[in-house]
Amino acid sequence: MSFMERSNILFTPNLSILLVFFCMVIKLSLCFPVIPSSLKIQGSFSFHGNEFAARDFGNRYHFLPSAVLFPKKVSDIASTVKHVLQMGPASGLTIAARGHGHSLQGQSQAPQGIVINMESLISGQEMQIHRGRFPFVDVSAGELWINILHECLKYGLAPKSWTDYLHLTVGGTLSNAGISGQAFRHGPQISNVYQLEVVTGKGEVVVCSAEKNADLFHGVLGGLGQFGIITRARIALEPAPKMVKWIRVLYSDFSTFSRDQENLISAENTFDYIEGLVIVNKTGLVNNWRSSFSPEEPEQASKFVSDGKTLFCLELTKNFDPEESDNINQEIKFLLSELNYIPSTLFVTEVSYTKFLDRVHSAELKLRSKGLWDLPHPWLNLLVPRSKINNFAEVVFGNMLTDTNNGPVLVYPVNKSKWDNKTSVVLPEEDIFYLVAFLPHAAENDGLQNFLSLNKRILDFCEAASLGVKQYLPFYTTQVEWRRHFGARWETFVQRKLAYDPFAILAPGQRVFQRSISIL
Ligand code: FAD
Predict the structure, then answer these.
(1) Atom 7 in ligand 1: which residue has the minimum CA distance?
(2) Please, which residues bridge with residue 277 across strands?
């Protein structure tokens, strides 16, 4: 009889007793109230009907929390964090701040833990706008960017840096970066914040800025919610334009397209917003644009056939006020004369600043009406160094991407000099890098697996070709992968975790650190 066999015989009865014991402990701990009535808060906890907190925009990961906190005061959040701390690591309880739940892989979820519904905090906190030389707005971190825009416009002001979609919360985008077509000039949203109020993983409420508690301030920006829950933010503003000239032109050659993009983001006198799209195998493209954009040369444009070709669309805007329309037209004419797009493909429209900034919401309404908005979103966002973008484009856009009919593929460069390297966000090693975003929707039984395997092939190629690509809105499931993602910055990230959330209570959905296990 081998040792294993003997030990099985010997230990079987004891094992069953142990199993029963463990089951009882688990059952007891589940029955034990996550939140005792002695915890005094001004908001409320909900223990049922919390399915919404187990959903996100990605619609692929669903983890039900034990409770959802609807805070009324910042102190509600601090008390909850302190309570979880007091329960000790054995409770396994974690806390996730939920902004608007537009994460892709469960990042704002807390399996069996506590989700904090940040939008509830807004009711107790008015937006406060300060004019003057350096105008700013103080907002609750659960505020949606679209509401901030509307409020600031009443004072003729607006934030400087945006995301393409404004129905996201301040806390949610500042935990990543917040990148859009203004980032080449102003940097991402995390470069446009003067001050934060944060509840750390120790339950302390700390006001921080580049001057005061700077390590926490920089750590939280792009920090994936790992060091604290942002409760309030002071965001830089600028005078808001009234109108926007919105321009689209097409290229058939990627290197010509990207050279023009890079020249534009490096110039002093340039457009106010610079992005780009990859278009593969899309029929009737130019005809679709005609409903909202006018071709500069209608006859030439009508002869342009996009069918089947891989094209690159440069998207630009110039802000203006109606009284300066003539000057702006001259300026645009000059800027366009420096570009090398296909001449017949110049399309222009004029919309209000609000309509331009809220453009993706219009697309959302259309997709919702077709039942396509709530489908799973196997998105992949990459930051690609400038020196590797042609290689990337040749292989990925040229060979791997078969069409772009299920959602846009964005590609545009930004200047690294506009990013603060003290924040937690991880960037490629070059002065200019591209955001490349694959943004499809796909039903479970209709292509989801294909998109997931395409994403894997793209990532494998980047790895094999050593392109130095970094994921934006990163998704990894093991600490080895996270270490590789952070590279030399891992040490700082871990030090900050130890300083501000040593028991790994916060943002478990990012899967960087595990509660109850040594975080090192
Ligand atoms: P959630 O999904 O609720 O939370 C995201 C993460 O942040 C979670 O880990 C959560 O725990 C944490 N978190 C939330 N609130 C706080 C807080 N107050 N304090 C600390 N941590 C917090 N991103 C861009 O940069 N540019 C774009 O153009 C862009 N466009 C998008 C368009 C669409 C349609 C969608 C769905 C997403 C887009 N994103 C874009 C990505 C978006 O910025 C992130 O997914 C962002 O996290 C979503 O914000 P949210 O409020 O929904 O956050």
Answers:
(1) 172
(2) 313, 410
